[in-house]
Design goal:
CATH class of the largest domain: Mainly Alpha
CATH superfamily of the largest domain: Hypothetical protein af1432
CATH architecture of the largest domain: Orthogonal Bundle
Largest sheet: none
Strand content: under 5%
């Protein structure tokens, strides 16, 4: 048996106390039950049979209902004012788009939207989702909407720490800046726990599927992925892609190392990367134009 040193014991106690502190926070968000139920229906076999059930569930959420109808009646689909029921919207949009919208909407609302304490973090997460979708399509990876959702949530731990432990996390960001370190290294040094660990713990607490939890937990170490290796590797690369594009602020100004395993696992080439980056640029500008944020892009 390996004996714990006093320092190791203190470190273990500190990590557990931090998790208990986060766990005890009254404002810690919970994942909406309606979203879990909709995702369960979307995952069932024979989606056509569950379309009406999904429409009924969406209609119980006024915000989500409004966003689905606004999307389908947008200029992008060219049917302004023509679609008035969620069921008809599902028929037109398709379940993949609706699932991506549901996940993105719910996560954005849970994380507090663009008003997060750590300025630029929401933009980084949003950009990572765009990058993951672009990379997934370039590589022909299935279920891109789930990979994109995982990328949107990959820095969930940072968002929780930055919003719930503002002073401590501000010190982490300053430490990373002054030491020219990644935010993850600074988190370990000052808090004894990293954002990917906190994010993993939280999504497990929410009971989210492993397809989301694993990329969040392992996006810095994709070689440790057990089941959803493609998605984890894509989220890892997407994080680096949007960092290189300098969109948003992930909490530091240091590029984390590229994991060779992820590159090889996805059979990446420089040409594939160039194609994915071009698609990411186009998709990002289109999304920002639709959100009236185009001035924030490069």
């Amino acid at each position: 048996m390996v004996e714990l040193t006093a320092d190791a014991l203190l470190d273990d106690l500190g990590r557990r106390m931090l998790k208990r502190r986060v766990d005890a926070l009254k404002s810690l968000p919970t994942f909406p039950e309606s979203i879990v139920r909709i995702n369960n229906l979307l995952a069932e076999d024979g989606p056509a049979d569950s379309l009406q059930k999904i429409a009924t569930l969406i209609e119980t959420d006024p915000v989500l209902c409004a966003r689905v109808l606004r999307l389908v009646n947008s200029a992008f689909y060219g049917v302004s004012g023509a679609i008035v029921t969620v069921f008809d919207a599902l028929l037109m949009l398709g379940l993949d788009i609706v699932k991506g919208l549901i996940l993105s909407t719910s996560v954005s609302d849970i994380l507090g939207g663009r008003g997060a304490t750590l300025d630029g973090l929401w933009e980084h997460s949003f950009g990572s989702a765009i990058a993951a979708n672009a990379l997934g399509k370039t590589l022909g990876i299935s279920r891109c909407e789930e990979v994109s959702a995982a990328a949107l949530m990959h820095d969930l731990g940072k968002m929780v720490l930055a919003s719930q432990m503002q002073d401590e996390y501000r010190a982490v960001v300053l430490h990373a800046k002054h030491k020219a370190q990644t935010i993850r290294v600074a988190e370990q040094a000052l808090l004894g726990v990293t954002h990917d660990e906190i994010g993993h713990w939280l999504v497990l607490r929410w009971g989210l599927p492993t397809s989301l939890a694993e990329p969040i937990a392992r996006h810095h170490e994709p070689s440790k992925s057990l089941k959803f290796t493609d998605a984890t590797a894509v989220v890892h690369l997407a994080d680096l892609m949007i960092r290189a594009y300098a969109f948003g602020f992930p909490g530091d100004q240091v590029m984390p190392p590229l994991d060779d395993f992820a590159w090889k696992h996805l059979s990446m080439t420089h040409e594939k990367l160039r194609l994915a980056v071009r698609r990411m640029q186009d998709d990002l500008h289109s999304a920002l134009a639709n959100m009236n944020l185009i001035s924030g892009a490069k």
